[in-house]
Amino acid sequence: MATQYQVICQEVTEFVKRGEFERAASVLEKYKGVREKFIARAFYILYSDKRSHYYSREGAIEHLNFLEKAKDIWGVMEKGRCLLEGDLYKKDTFGAEDLFNAALNVKGTSIDKAKYYLGLIASNGLHSPDNEDARDPEHARAMFSEVMQGESGFRELAREEYCRTIMRSGQITPKERASLFNHLSQLFTKNPERGAPLYSEFLLEALSILGKTVFSEERAPQGMTEKADFDARYNELRNAITVMKNILPSTK
User: Fold this and answer.
1) Its domain of life (predicted)?
2) pLDDT tens digits for 112-146?
3) How would you classify residue 84: left for phi > 0, otherwise alpha for psi between -120 and 50, otherwise beta?
4) Band (248; pLDDT cuts 50, 70, 90)
5) Distance, CA of 113 to CA of 77 (rounded, Å)
6) How many contiguous H segments (helices) and E segments (strands) does the chain have?
7) Is the separation of the CB atoms in 56 and 47 below 8 Å?
8) CA 75, CA 59: separation in Å to the nearest integer?
9) How far is Cα 177 from Cα 117, in angstroms, rounded to an integer?
10) Cα 200 to Cα 39: distance, rounded to the nearest angstrom
11) Taking CA 151 as the corner, what is the angle to CA 122 and CA 15, rounded to the nearest 5 degrees?
12) Could you tell me the pTM of the whole model?
């Protein structure tokens, strides 16, 4: 059963989502000075929203630091996100990863946020953005897979990054290719605008691979005329793929 403070936090969150900042501030007015985690969350949500004239970097940091010290898992993960993205604080990927790892000690689906961001850090080598060797695709895929199996709001984001991680590897097994097609189809069906870039990139790459197989030297006819026609058709395919790459949405 939700406590009084939980209800207040839920009310403030809904008001802020709808842009009703005055109503959110009115609810919180009599709770200034109250040191309680749900009240701190509510103040943070109000102060960190840049759409509002109540936005306060100092106020948001104060309440988020309180939540971290109180070992509130929501606050720990949110501060991790802020450090990773350079929001409110100076960007600190090491500090962010420490916070997300600390969150993993807590059981429950709420830690899907931590797993998702740990996957991003591993997939993109965010400790060392200029060093691709810092990437850990296996760990990234493990984190994204766990989130994909849950029902949190990070499920589809994890599915997208899971696909991106595999596609970035460059060497995809037949089993992985089948899995990619399934996941990318789901992404595109649920959100065509967001799913189209990765989906089209995958399909065009599949066409390119198919073309290399169908028009390989081993399959080329012996006759001069037939060989010229064979090469011409392959060039037509490659040109068509190039045109489609310029027309269809791209991740680049």
Assistant:
1) Bacteria
2) 999 999 999 999 888 765 555 678 899 999 999 99
3) alpha
4) confident
5) 7
6) 12, 0
7) yes
8) 14
9) 24
10) 45
11) 100
12) 0.84
